[in-house]
Amino acid sequence: MSSNITISKDSLDFLNELKKNNNREWFEANKTTFKKHEAQVKAFFEAVKDNLNQHDEIEKMKMFRIYRDVRFSKDKTPYKSHFAGSFSRLGAHLRGGYYLHIKPGESLLAAGFWAPNKEDLFRIRKELELDASEFRDTINQKQLKTVWGDLSGDELKTAPKGFEKEHPDIDLIRKKQFVFVRNLSDSEVLSASFLEEVDNSFRAIRPYFDLMSDILTTNLNGESIL
Q: What are the residues whose beta carbons fall under 8 Å from the beta carbon of 160, sequence distance 6 or more?
């Protein structure tokens, strides 16, 4: 496992300064400092990916750009005040992904399915309509629940089209996202063991990913569609 790579307090301090001075003049004057912190955080994300590949298969790691797309936003500040990276699991075979968000006072880990396509969302809902017992057993496993808490994500106010409003598992069927989120304190992020803690958290979500991979690569009869 990669080790000895940490997130520095200087990087969090820089993000705080950026939040207070979110304008092009300040950013350009401090771009060299930004590039230094960006490189350090990217090295951390690369180490997260290396660790994940010890027990999962990661197709790609993406570090998100600091520049905000303000075209359709009321908030016209040009820069994000966080660093973030995503780790996509191997394509059609595994599905889902991991996410790490570094922001002073608001850091978090996430894992699951943020924006399932229409076909995948329908497949998940049909599985839950047929029998949600294995799904519930999985998300309520003690270790997963201790680390990650409850399933979260956006959901419809009522039943999706074609599904019964009175279905006993409608609380799951109406979800549009199937994600777990773990909030992190600054002291956790700055800890010498943070890299290991991130990996342990991602390991704890594996039963959920295994089940979802199984659902999304089979039909309702359990036959492979790959």
A: 125, 173, 174
